[in-house]
Amino acid sequence: MKQSGAQIIWECLVREGVDTVFGYPGGAILPAYDAMLGYPIRHVLVRHEQSAAHMADGYARASGRVGVVVATSGPGATNLVTGLATAMMDSSPVVAITGQVGSALLGTDAFQEVDITGITLPITKHNYLVTRAADVAPALREAFAVARSGRPGPVLVDITKDAQQGLAELDWEGAVPSRHLRHIPPFPDEKELAAAAELINAAHRPLILAGHGIQLSGARAEVLSFAERGDVPFAITLLGLGAVPATHPLSLGMMGMHGEAWVNHAIQEADLLLAFGMRFDDRVTGKLREYAPNAKKIHIDIDPSEINKIVPVDLALGGDLKAVLEALLPLVQVADRSAWLDRIRSWKGDSAVRDIKNLPDEGHLYAAHVMNDLWRLTKGGAVVVSDVGQHQMWEAQYYHHDAERSLITSGGAGTMGFALPAAIGAKLARPDAEDWVVAGDGGFQMTFAELITTVQEQVKVNIAVINNGYLGMVRQWQELFYEGRYAATPILSPDFVKLAEAFGIPGIRVQRRGEVAEAVARAREAQGTVLVEFRVEQEDSVYPMVPAGAALHEMIRRPAPSAIAETGSDPV
Amino acid sequence: MSHVLVVYTDDEPGVLTRVASLFRRRGFNIHSLTVGPTERERVSRMTIVVDADEILARRAVEHLRKLVNVLEVQQLDRARKVVRDLALVRVKAGPEIRSRVLELVQVFRANVVDIAEDSLVIECTGNLEKIEALVEMLRPYGILEVGRTGAVALARGSRAGARRTLATVPGTDGPQTMSV
Ligand SMILES: Cc1cc2nc3c(=O)[nH]c(=O)nc-3n(C[C@H](O)[C@H](O)[C@H](O)COP(=O)(O)OP(=O)(O)OC[C@H]3O[C@@H](n4cnc5c(N)ncnc54)[C@H](O)[C@@H]3O)c2cc1C
Ligand SMILES: Cc1ncc(C[n+]2csc(CCOP(=O)(O)OP(=O)(O)O)c2C)c(N)n1
Ligand SMILES: [Mg+2]
User: Which residues in chain B are contacts of A138 at CB distance < 8 A?
Assistant: First the structure.
């Protein structure tokens, strides 16, 4: 039986296990939308296609399944660009389906024609221009395989209007993809594994750098077995948070620019670094020439192009982390490294914990306190979707993530406006989870139109807007590195409580620490989305901070509390 | 330092763009890139000469391998390879100097492929040095136009291209009609 290309699109999505898509209709994708009604797939209508891409991304990160976004040609497609770049940077499996003008019009600057496959070439793992109905299934099937295999990432399938309208036989079996299997890196051989084990067993001060690849590989258990067996502590990247439990006795916390001081000290003093599915982002390494000068380095990564890209390593084990660790584990000797662990613990007194304790909370509301309270009040059990800026770093420092996929944030691209839409996607992927958006006043204003999407779609997300009246992260840089000239960083916000009301959702304003618990409780109890605005200290900064270009141990520390607060209780 | 990469790809529209875009985006310097069909249907072969140190060249290889359309990438050994360039040179050759130009053509084992009243078109195949030497020798006579192909390369010995790998890689035939 012949079907239209449009029908074949949905047939394929159903077969790929897709239950939800995020999108926005338009002329070139109309045939697909028209066919959609006949299929058991939920469509979430967004207010901007960028948000749809973030939703698909959030859906993918919350569940590990491929997120799907649909948009029309021209501006619909170009609006996806930021969302696809965000997914690409953080290895998130997303399939974008865009409508395109009829194939006869391609290249003629037709109405709403945009070369979206050309535009998205560097920000997708792969993309397709489909001009015949018969090619829809092979392209989509391969797109899903490419998106989810190896190092995951976004794939775009651009389908001309005539390919949607044309008829073809759906040959599902004939469309089985295989090109994504072309370049599976060879699994490490016994010699390489033995060499790695030798380095590990001989190390006195080893340290695991736990990255996002642990989550993507599903290697939590193997990483923990490895750490426990060898008594090896682990430091975590921003995107690795949650992949391994923060409160594990061997967990040190986040590394890097805004990582814990003792973690960065540990990296600088280690004699062996074990990079598990992390890519040495510049926010993680600081000045490269002085990065971990005493350490040998072993890098386990599924993407061979990551090896020696930033940090030259002594040994690379290519492959899926879980599989590599399974092979490596039997070679790792049970060890006691308490001398090293004690040494790290001795640095812990000098820490962010001290910083937060020292913040006076009378009459002041500090974002760090809000995050720490949120962690306690939700018993660490929420899925937090953070935006980009200071609040994102405070969240990472003070909300301790034990559960897998419990932090969703834009790390590599640092895309403001990500949080609210990504949280909607995350909630739809895992409806039973409690979701919290943590966004700044700046980033929230980029995509808050999606508030109404939570109402129309009856999706409950709890929202914490950390309002400091500034594009705070940029203001912090201006304070520290541009002599306090606040060019274009003070930002006015609407009355968030009234704004919430206009969208038909409750809005709560919190100005004192004493009000935090009740507001959080009210939000949690409510049926639908609730917006809580936290009016926090305006010129607070995130510490510690490794300035751009400085070595990891050259951190700027929080100045004495008196310097940032005129009144308040005594420091603890 | 230059490295010679041989890249087998699907013969699809847009593959060249993907490869070129990768080199541009990652900041790899292409010295030359040639592309043509192979002994296998629907498989193209590119010879890419990159200016890069060893580490960068390896990275280029790994990045190329991530392209869905790429079947195989080989980095040709520094010594064990045959590299050839083709040049077509139109040079002034009036009656008074023609014999001297023809002598050069013989010495370089080049060919004359077109003759006009006061000029010749010379075809020369060889490695980079040979071609550049010929061009230098011809320069005093007056070069009117040069067209060059860039390098095409094969490994020496009996290694038969990518055939072995192609046979063992499942599904080298992807969807054919679409792609950018
Ligand atoms: C304002 C701001 C501040 C930031 N500050 C910090 C900071 O202080 N500290 C910090 O850590 N980050 C910080 N970041 C985030 C940073 O930019 C990077 O996004 C982050 O460090 C990347 O973490 P990652 O390498 O673990 O994850 P990714 O970038 O997602 O890399 C994952 C790696 O795992 C590999 N991989 C994937 N799947 C597998 C598998 N199955 N098996 C093996 N390997 C696999 C991939 O190939 C890749 O190399 C900040 C971001 C922002 C926006
Ligand atoms: C789309 C986008 N534009 C600009 C930036 C640069 N930037 C990074 S953090 C930041 C400030 C964020 O302000 P806000 O959302 O209020 O959060 P805060 O830092 O105050 O917590 C800016 C402008 C960005 N990351 N993303
Ligand atoms: Mg702000």
Answer: 174-175, 178
Judge: A128–B21 Cβ closer than 8 Å, yes or no. no
Contact A177 B171 (CB under 8 A): yes
Residues B59 and B88 both lie in one domain:
no
Pocket of ligand 2 from Cβ distances under 6 Å: A 387-391, 414-416, 440-443, 466, 468, 470-474
The alpha carbon of A257 and the centre of ligand 1 are apart by a number of angstroms equal to 13
Return the amino acid letter for A54: H
Whether residue B74 contacts residue B5, with contact meaning beta carbons closer than 8 Å, is answered with yes
> What domains, with CATH codes, occur in chain A?
2-181 (3.40.50.970), 190-349 (3.40.50.1220), 367-535 (3.40.50.970)
Strands B111-115 and B119-126: antiparallel
Look up the domain containing B118 and give its range: 82-152
Model pTM score: 0.95
| Same domain membership, residue B86 and residue B74 | no
Helix/strand number for chain A, H first, E second: 24, 20
**Tens digits of pLDDT across chain A (572 residues):** 999 999 999 999 999 999 999 999 999 999 999 999 999 999 999 999 999 999 999 999 999 999 999 999 999 999 999 999 999 999 999 999 999 999 999 999 999 999 999 999 999 999 999 999 999 999 999 999 999 999 999 999 999 999 999 999 999 999 999 999 998 888 999 999 999 999 999 999 999 999 999 999 999 999 999 999 999 999 999 999 999 999 999 999 999 999 999 999 999 999 999 999 999 999 999 999 999 999 999 999 999 999 999 999 999 999 999 999 999 999 999 999 999 999 999 988 766 556 677 777 777 899 999 999 999 999 999 999 999 999 999 999 999 999 999 999 999 999 999 999 999 999 999 999 999 999 999 999 999 999 999 999 999 999 999 999 999 999 999 999 999 999 999 999 999 999 999 999 999 999 999 999 999 999 999 999 999 999 999 999 999 999 989 999 999 988 865 444 433 333 32
**CB-nearest partner of A139 from B169, B172, B178:** B178
CA of A474 to the centre of ligand 3 (A): 9
Residues of A labelled catalytic: 49, 111-112, 161, 473
For chain B, how many structural domains are there in total?
2
Structure tokens at A53: 């891409």
Residues in A touching B67 (Cβ below 8 Å): 126
Q: How far apart are CA A308 and CA A297, in angstroms?
A: 10
Tell me which residues of chain A have a C-beta less than 8 Å from any C-beta of chain B. Answer: 117-118, 121-122, 125-132, 134-135, 138-139, 142, 146, 175-183, 303-305, 307-309
Q: Which residues of A224-249 are buried (b: 16+ CB within 10 A; e: fewer)?
A: bebbeebebbbbbbbbbbbbbbbeee
Q: Do B174 and A178 touch (CB under 8 A)?
A: yes
Q: Residue B142: inside a domain, yes or no? A: yes
Burial level of A403, CB count in 10 A (0-12/13-18/19+)? middle
Q: B6 and B69: one domain?
A: yes
